[in-house]
């Protein structure tokens, strides 16, 4: 009899933001397959008898290719009854949880999803606000390399949403901000970069579309970081 794989969102880092169900599953797990950006306090909640397997990824380096991670999940589900796939943030928001779910279902493995708070929802800004933001878009700054062409239309987004929350955008920040300005977004639009959001070492850097790339370079801000674009950023500074 095969087990069940639980795709568990670990949230943005603060252990207090992990769901109760996520914590329960970590305590019951027989094996936990976890990502790079899961915080140490959350890893400390794992059943001490559970097998742990690190499958983290950083830009330019993957401990395992995605296809092999899915194969590993299938293998472990045939060995154990309770398999936790622990993913930073939410499994279904730029977490490749959909790919893993599809692979598990194709292999006949039972899978359940436990949502987590995505990093983009934990940046500390009111992403919507009746006075300044009636729409918000969560968008990746790093599309799959195997795509034949990019699908993010930055020019359209420049005019299409009041607030933009950009994941994995630090490496291409100069290109992204330039594309937004070419699309008609004002250079003085406020921007905040939130590095290590909700972790003890969280840092914030404020600027505008026209200045944020230079400010990031000068301050030495690197990933992991979220980029928030829009008038809601001004609310944090009042």
UniProtKB/TrEMBL annotation:
Which protein family is named in the record?
Answer: Belongs to the precorrin methyltransferase family.
Put simply, this protein is called uroporphyrinogen-III C-methyltransferase
Spell out the InterPro entries in the cross-references: 4pyrrol_Mease, 4pyrrol_Methylase_sf, 4pyrrole_Mease_sub1, 4pyrrole_Mease_sub2, CobA/CysG_C, Siro_Cobalamin_biosynth, Uropor_MeTrfase_CS
Q: What does this protein do?
A: It is a step in the biosynthesis of both cobalamin (vitamin B12) and siroheme.
Which pathway does it take part in?
A: Porphyrin-containing compound metabolism
Keyword S-adenosyl-L-methionine assigned: yes
Keyword set includes Transferase = yes
The molecular function terms in GO held by this entry are: uroporphyrin-III C-methyltransferase activity
- GO terms for biological process, alphabetical: methylation; siroheme biosynthetic process
Q: Which Gene3D superfamilies match?
A: Cobalt-precorrin-4 Transmethylase, Domain 1, Methyltransferase, Cobalt-precorrin-4 Transmethylase, Domain 2
Q: What is its EC number?
A: 2.1.1.107
Query: Which SUPFAM superfamilies does the annotation name?
Result: Tetrapyrrole methylase (SSF53790)
Outline the extent of the Tetrapyrrole methylase domain.
4-212
Q: Which UniProt keywords apply?
A: Methyltransferase, Porphyrin biosynthesis, S-adenosyl-L-methionine, Transferase
């Amino acid at each position: 009899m095969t087990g069940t794989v639980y795709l568990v969102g670990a949230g943005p880092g603060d252990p207090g933001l992990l769901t109760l169900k996520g914590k329960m599953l970590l305590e019951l797990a027989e094996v936990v397959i976890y990502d790079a950006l899961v915080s140490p306090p959350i890893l400390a909640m794992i059943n001490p008898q559970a097998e742990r397997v690190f499958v983290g990824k950083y830009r330019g380096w993957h401990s395992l290719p995605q296809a092999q991670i899915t194969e590993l999940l299938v293998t472990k589900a045939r060995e154990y009854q309770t398999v936790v796939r622990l993913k930073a943030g939410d499994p279904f928001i730029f977490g490749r949880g959909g790919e893993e779910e599809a692979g598990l279902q194709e292999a006949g493995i039972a899978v359940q999803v436990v949502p987590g708070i995505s990093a983009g929802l934990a940046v500390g800004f009111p992403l919507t606000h009746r006075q300044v933001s009636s729409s918000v878009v969560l968008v990746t700054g790093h599309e799959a390399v195997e795509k034949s062409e990019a699908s993010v239309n930055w020019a359209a987004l420049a005019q299409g949403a009041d607030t933009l929350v950009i994941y994995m955008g630090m490496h291409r920040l100069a290109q992204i901000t330039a594309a937004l300005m070419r699309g008609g977004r004002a250079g003085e639009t406020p921007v905040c970069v939130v590095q290590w959001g909700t972790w003890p070492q969280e840092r914030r850097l404020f600027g505008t579309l026209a200045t944020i790339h230079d400010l990031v370079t000068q301050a030495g801000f690197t990933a992991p970081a979220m980029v928030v674009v829009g008038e809601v950023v001004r609310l944090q500074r009042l």
